[in-house]
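Box S1 | Example of a co-folding query
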Amino acid sequence: MVNPVASVTARIKSAARELGFAHAGIARAEALEPEGMRLLEWLRSGRHAGMAYMERDPRRRSDPREVLPGARSVISVSANYYTPQIHPEDAAIARISRYAWGDDYHDVLLPRLRALEERVKELVPDAETRGYVDTGPVMDKAWAVRAGIGWLGKHGNVITRDRGSWVFLATILTTAALEYDVPIADFCGSCTRCIDACPTAAIPEPYVVDANRCIPYLTIELKGDDIPGVEDMDFKSWIFGCDICQDVCPWNSFAVPSGETAFAPRPRSLDTRIEDVLVMGGEEFRERFRKSPVARTKHSGLRRNARILLRQRESHGST
Ligand code: SF4
Ligand code: SF4
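Box S1 (continued) | Returned holo structure for iron/sulfur cluster
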């Protein structure tokens, strides 16, 4: 006899694939331990830097039943955003993180996630769902690991065995009872390439990233006209985000190009000089980065980052 829960689970995973997701896995909705404890330790040690929103209600963040009462399952999906272009060698070029070369992934993935939620409700008519693309009170990475999509690398990103770490994650909490996947092993082994390659020593110990020193936090999340004290650091020409720890990861040699044209680099994503960003007008910024993740820094933020890169270049001549 066909197990109805297994059959519904298989159909949800198949719907996820049809919607373009690269992986789909399912975990039991329960309190995340020890992940929740690790989050608290990370917060206590101040490694979240100025991301005060992360301090809000960490208990809720680590227990999906606090977000969706009656939640039984967590569906985790990934979307491959790898494109074969490589970052420019020329230090005069402003480097933009790979995930931000194309369109904003929230805009691309949210309609698909909503469609997957609808599919869950069709298959389990009384089910409730809450879906999030990176923005909700859910620990997407921890759920992706529990759902067997990949393991948490020492650089803090989820690594999949067949596509590496160039994947976006999205999460659906649901009251539907589903079959659960088993987490896969951690395949980092004795490798320390990401830790060794980080130019700002932002990985003080394996699996711990210190946002105070991490270039994506400093160039994207941190607001303000200046970032005092960063002359001593070397951002290696990264003006928006940083891919160094993922670029050096051996598992990313398994990356396969995404078929998603929305994630392909927009013109000038890979050849804009730092000096050109400094003189870029507001209109050009809005035109180039409309519906791009780079819009998050705003015009003033990107120009601030350009000024910092030029100051770092003056300070130690390496960018
Ligand atoms: S993103 Fe860049 S700065 Fe942050 S840990 Fe990785 S290599 Fe270091
Ligand atoms: S570079 Fe090595 S240690 Fe770092 S995440 Fe990849 S496999 Fe793990």
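The first strand starts at residue 23 and ends at 28. The mean pLDDT is 94.
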